[in-house]
Specification:
The protein is α/β, with parallel strands linked by helices. The chain is 41% helix and 17% strand. The N and C termini lie close together (9 Å).
């Protein structure tokens, strides 16, 4: 069984077959639990709605750095209140994205919102899901300030060096490995997977984005997680079953409210 740690089934690309996927197809394709991750405020609302409609779907709620305009006192209070829902297992995805934001003022606002949501995670005692792009140093420094036995989490869609990944591993964090690991130009992530313990890896799709080979360019879904597990097994010199089992346990450990199937 595979644990999908990061999906966006609230996306409009799933409007035509969302019910079929979440009700039948995923269970029939060795997919156990799914965490649907909010990004915009609407995405948080939709993720929580999905989580409460499907037994094996859970929600993460948080404001993505590209949507920091959504974070204000009212939405922060909404996140605080709904973090107590039994189906909410993380605050996320939150973090920094300097790839799209070039303006110093805009980056400062991202850092402010990142700090606010890390503080919220500490307050409500939930793990976090981190989005970080072209912001390795600022992300790591922020996480080091907040890292405790209560606040840890997953660095989603990991794209930095193996050396930085090992810094996260030392703190007990997890590295989210998705479709990029199967790409011909995914060497950096492949080297990271080889370097870090399997006990610090979780599997994700980020669907509907970033479909793995041989489906690159298609709409992604959790059904394609098997390709990611196979590539991780190849890189680690392990059986696919061991990769699935260990990463499943890793995800259960980080998403402590999740129900074992």
């Amino acid at each position: 069984m595979i644990f999908e740690t990061h999906a966006h089934y609230d996306d409009e690309k799933f409007d035509a077959d969302r019910v079929e996927l979440l009700s039948h197809l995923l269970k029939d394709n060795n997919i156990g639990n799914i965490v649907n991750v909010g990004a915009s405020f609407k995405g948080c609302e939709d993720s929580l709605k999905l989580a409460n409609e499907y037994e094996n779907v859970y929600a993460a709620i948080g404001i993505h750095p590209e949507d920091v305009k959504d974070l204000n006192e009212d939405t922060l209070n909404w996140l605080r209140t709904h973090s107590a829902d039994p189906k909410v297992v993380a605050i996320g995805e939150i973090g920094l994205d300097y790839y799209w934001e070039k303006d110093d003022e805009g980056r400062a606002l991202q850092r402010q919102c990142f700090n606010q949501q890390m503080e919220l995670a500490s307050e409500v005692q939930l793990p976090v899901i981190i989005h970080s792009r072209d912001a390795a140093e600022d992300t790591l420094n922020t996480i080091k300030r907040y890292n405790t036995q209560i606040v840890n989490g997953i660095v989603h869609c990991y794209s930095y060096s193996k050396e930085i990944a090992l810094e996260y591993v030392k703190m007990g964090w997890y590295i989210g490995v998705g479709g990029v690991v199967t790409f011909k130009n995914g060497r950096k992530l492949q080297e990271t997977v080889k370097a870090i313990p399997i006990e610090n890896i979780v599997l994700e799709t980020d669907c509907p984005y970033m479909a793995p080979e041989p489906h690159r360019g298609e709409r992604n879904s959790s059904i394609f997680l098997s390709h990611i597990a196979e590539k991780v097994a190849e890189l680690k010199g392990m059986s696919v079953k061991d990769v699935e089992d260990i990463t499943y346990e890793n995800a259960l450990r980080i998403y402590s409210k999740s129900k074992r199937n």
